[in-house]
Structures are given as C-alpha cells and as structure tokens.
Amino acid sequence: MTELHPLTQAVIDGDKARAGELTRQCLDDGEDAASIIEQRLVPGMAVIGERFQADEIFVPEMLIAANAMKTSLAILEPLIAASGRKAPYTAVIGTVHGDLHDIGKNLVGMMWRGANIEVIDLGVNVSPEAFAEAARTHQPDLVGMSALLTTTMPHMRQAVAAVKATGVATKIVIGGAPVTREFADEVEADGFAADAGAAADVARQLVGATTAKGEMTA
Ligand code: B1M
To answer: What is the rounded CA–CA span in Å between residue 184 and residue 192?
Structure first.
C-alpha cells in the first residue's frame, strides 16, 4: 500500500494541530496552496468519505477530520484568494424552508469543499425563492438541498421546481435522513446522496459529466 503524505494522514486522524503544522511546512517547502488542497487534503477527505460509507467510522470522526481540514483550509484559503485562483466548481447549499437541522448539511458542504468545490452556504430555513435567487446570482454547477423532517420534504419539491424554473444550467442534489432516491426521482432532482461521502461522489459525477472546467482530483 502506498504511504500517505503526513498531512493527508493528519486529516484522516483528525489531528488539527498537526494538520496546521504540516500545512505550514508544505508551504515552507515551496508547495503552492492549491496543490496542497488537491494533493494533500482532498485525498484525506476522500478516505474519510469511503470509511464513513463503509460504516468504519461515524459522524464524530467525520466531524473531527472535517475540523482538521478546516484548520488547514483556514491557512490556505487567504493565499488562494490573494492569488486569484478559484476552485473549478461552485455549489450553493442550504437546508430547506422550515428546517433548522444543519449538521448533515455542513458535513456535505465540507466534503464538497474537500472535493475542490467552492461552497456558498445559504444556511438553514432557506425558501424556494432564496434557492432560486442564489442560483441566478452565483450560476453554480450544483445546488444542494438538505431536509431532516418529513414535514419539510414538500418544501424541497418546491425548491427544486423554483431552481429549475430559473433556467440556470445547474444540477440539483438532495439528501437528508428522510429523503430517498425515489423521492429524488419524484421531485426531479438530478442527484441523491444518502450521506456526505456519497454526496461528494455524486457531486464529482454530476460536475464531471456536465462541465469542462477541469479534472476533479479526488
Ligand atoms: Co431534530 N429531529 N427536531 N433536532 N433531530 C430529528 C431529525 C428526528 C428524526 C428526531 C426523532 O424524532 N427521532 C425528528 C424528525 C422526525 C421526522 O420528521 N422524520 C426531529 C424532530 C421531530 C425535531 C423537532 C420537530 C422537535 C421539536 O421541536 N418537537 C425540531 C424541528 C426544528 C426545525 O427544524 N424546525 C427539531 C430540532 C432539533 C434540534 C434543533 C434540537 C437539533 C438540530 C441541531 C442542528 O442541526 N444544528 C436536532 C437534532 C440534533 C436531531 C437529531 C437528534 C440529529 C440530527 C443530526 O444532526 N444527525 C435527529 C435524530 C437523528 O437523526 N437521529 C433529529 C447527524 C447528521 C450528520 O446526520 O443530518 O441525517 P443527518 O445528515 C446526514 C445524511 O442525512 C446526509 O448526509 C449527512 C451526513 O452523512 N445528508 C445529505 C444530509 N443532508 C444532505 C444533503 C445532501 C446529501 C446528503 O445533498 C445536498
């Protein structure tokens, strides 16, 4: 088995202090911020996603890994912003109207960031109109919607319809504990993911299949 880079391993281990230290070391060694994200951090989150899907780890470990990656990103993002380089893909994400649950949505957002997608987080209780407005404003490659309550799933249907009505060429991914693939088909979402690891896979498939902005590296 190929040995992982120490920074990749630090993300997998959820070791925030080491992730920060190794990120600075990579920069000192002359690696550029975008390569550190693509070659060191993204592979770590990909491993985490696979382990989560295989039930080898659970939400706490995933959050801990996500926080280690956040520590590293906090160092790198200002450098990337200053260099004018952008992640090749953009997504907006939110929890639908009437729903205040955001832990799962935040995990999906983090996995998407880990897959080199810029994520604009609309927060919770997002109305169909607000999703549509965000689609018009940001022209994202992806729109992600999360719902945790059976009572808020109907708002998801309205939100999908509102985004489609804008005519923006984007792909809509939905998920959340009560959401099923059947429901996603019924409301004509483009993708469904049962968990955050699968959400990263679905995102890669959808943007990879429909845009020509570059290769996803995860
Ligand atoms: Co609420 N709650 N809650 N709650 N809550 C549930 C969801 C519930 C199942 C608990 C229960 O009764 N057993 C139940 C819903 C029943 C139903 O409708 N089927 C419920 C209820 C009823 C309520 C209230 C109505 C309670 C009340 O006030 N009477 C109320 C509603 C408030 C509102 O939203 N309007 C309420 C409130 C809350 C808190 C605020 C206290 C808190 C939320 C805090 C927060 O999110 N900041 C809360 C919590 C914590 C839960 C439970 C315990 C945990 C949810 C969670 O964070 N799970 C939950 C019971 C449970 O799930 N066991 C429950 C961890 C998280 C990582 O998983 O969010 O499923 P999850 O996300 C997963 C996947 O679903 C998927 O990936 C994630 C990672 O793998 N996923 C996506 C999620 N979004 C995705 C989007 C994608 C793709 C995948 O693409 C874009």
So the answer is: 6
Closest CA to 62 of 54, 142, 37, 155: 54
| 99 Cα to the center of ligand 1, angstroms | 9
Domains of the chain: 1-86 (1.10.1240.10), 87-218 (3.40.50.280)
Q: If you take atom 68 of ligand 1, which residue's CA is the nearest one?
A: 104
Q: Measuring from atom 78 of ligand 1, which residue has the nearest CA?
A: 104
Residue ranges in the chain assigned as alpha helix (H): 6-13, 16-28, 33-35, 42-53, 59-83, 103-114, 128-138, 153-165, 181-186, 196-210
More confident residue, 115 or 146: 146
From the alpha carbon of 147, which atom of ligand 1 is closest?
A: 84
Flag whether pLDDT at 78 surpasses 90: no
Atom of ligand 1 nearest to the CA of 177: 75
The rounded distance, in Å, linking the Cα atoms of 87 and 106 is 18
123 has a pLDDT exceeding 70:
yes
Ligand 1: residue whose CA is nearest its atom 21: 149
Ligand 1: nearest atom to the Cα of 151? 18
